[in-house]
Amino acid sequence: MDKNKVTPTQPLVVRIFHWGFALSMVMIVLTGFELHSPFTFLAFNYGNVFVVHMTFAWLALGFVSLRIVDAFIRKDTSFIPKLSDFRGFVGVLAYYLFLRDSLPPGEKYNSGQKFIFFSWFIVFAVATLLGIATYFMGEYLVWVWRLVGGWQIVRTVKFLAAVYFSATILVHIYLSFTEDLSRLQAMITGYERQEP
Amino acid sequence: MLSRREFLGLVFKGAVLGNFINLVAPPIHQALAQGEVKKIPVLMIETGTCTGDSISLDNIWPPTFGNILTNLLDWRYDWTMMQSQGSQAYQVLLDTYTKNPYDYILIVQGTIVHRDEGNYNHVGLEDGRLVTGLELVRRLGLKAKYVVAIGSCATFGGPPAGYPNPTQSTGVQKILPERRVINVSGCPAHPDWTMGTLFHLALYGEPELDKFGRPKMFYGETIHNNCERRRYYDQGIFATDIGQKECLYRVGCKGPVTYADCPIRAWNDHINWPVGCNSPCIGCTEPGYPDIMEPFTAHLPDIPFPGGTKITTNNIGFGVLGVTSAAITGHMAASLYKGRLHKNLIKSTAKAKHRPSVMKAKEFHTYRLKHRK
Q1: Cβ separation of A151 and B256 shorter than 8 Å?
Q2: pLDDT in tens, B296-343
Q3: At which of B162, B184, B218 does a domain end?
Q4: Which of residues 220-279 of B touch A (CB under 8 A)?
Q5: Mind listing the domains of chain A with CATH numbers?
Q6: Distance between CA atoms of residues B72 and B203, nearest Å
Q7: I want to staple B224 with a disulfide (CB 3.0 to 4.6 A). Which of A61, B1, B142, B256 is the partner?
Q8: Is the ipTM of this complex over 0.90?
Q9: Which residues of B touch A194 (CB under 8 A)?
């Protein structure tokens, strides 16, 4: 193995998706919380907050679609958990709880990352479906409205999804900065220094 | 006779002017006099109810509710409104059931009690046997031309079906799955909603319904979209307490999730409506009311946990974010103490063409690059 070689780990499409989706989600969650319970010290024009919320929601949907198409084209399953990841997750958890010194050997992402990344796709899909149904407010996708049992339930589920995103994004940012900065670098430049 | 389009026009015009019944009564009188329509027999069964919908109907003016009962509809059985009582009154119900099958409108007011085969709600006496609401509504409903449930209780269960629902109450549709029940929801139902639906049934048949069986002519738009305080919402000007004149969204108004035309039609002869007197909408026309609308002064419903505890969704959100923040802080402190943070940072930032290995130095919690030969 050439020791001087840097390895490309994050293709351009993944980086575009990552930062685009990150910005979109931050804006969606922040404007969502503002729409949910308006802060008294922020005298925002509420109609504008809603427009920003919706705009970033459509953008996020675009970025996710881009990533899914990219995953199909490159046959990339790196973020999809496999059965072995349930076993590997124990080792990952032990590492984060300081019960072992290093992460168990794994693929591009460890099992903890896979579970969180994959759950984001699922939660995003559910929130998007509910969001679009809310957007059309009974005009289209009425089966979603009926399935869930009314708008009050819809917005409770969306609120809980926002809380889930907020909590997991915090963990993601914390671990990105404290575990391996070269991985963070790879998400900007695309390259990561090779293991010795 | 009025065309259906003209009738729907009067539904809206009556909402704005506050005289819907007054507008539709003369053409219906005329159509009846000319024999273009006939008066449909109406049976009103009250099951588990507070009779609020009858009180609401009695508020019709002008013409009076009595005028409607005798001149516009063939209102045959209604134990709150009829003068006769006992077996004499009940016989009217049985006669209509046997002599006019598939020709009468059954109105149900009140929740359907299921527990112990419905025996906590008796609505009649037949041959010395008490008849339950569950049994009578099902029996009459199967032979009715139309079944109309009025009020929150009859439509979706209402307050009696609230957690923990000791009487195992439900709406009418649950016990009549074979029939399409027309739900005129509300706590109580607005008299225009009930009468408008009945007139539509008498003149043109079943009105266009939404996915919860409610007539779209009255429940086609959210309260929020027609609210007189919508401009405050759009500009982000919110009341911080009930009683203030701005948008009541922050103090729990359920207008954005509730379908009804209250903002236009108003109540008590077009005098006022909840938001008009600075009180938030409590979402009484929606399925799941009151459980999913409570607390009425909060935006989202409390979430029940085993043991009867309820926690507000905001507290759940704050709790999750608080635990996450505490976990991150704790992990960072432990990483500093164990030296993992140093190790990871040195390993991932040291200037080298490849990722270097690190080794523990003699000093406590410090690492240095491992020298290679």
Answers
A1: yes
A2: 988 888 887 887 788 888 899 999 999 999 999 999 999 988 888 888
A3: B218
A4: 222, 233-238, 240, 249-250, 254, 256-259
A5: 6-193 (1.20.950.20)
A6: 11
A7: B256
A8: no
A9: 354-355
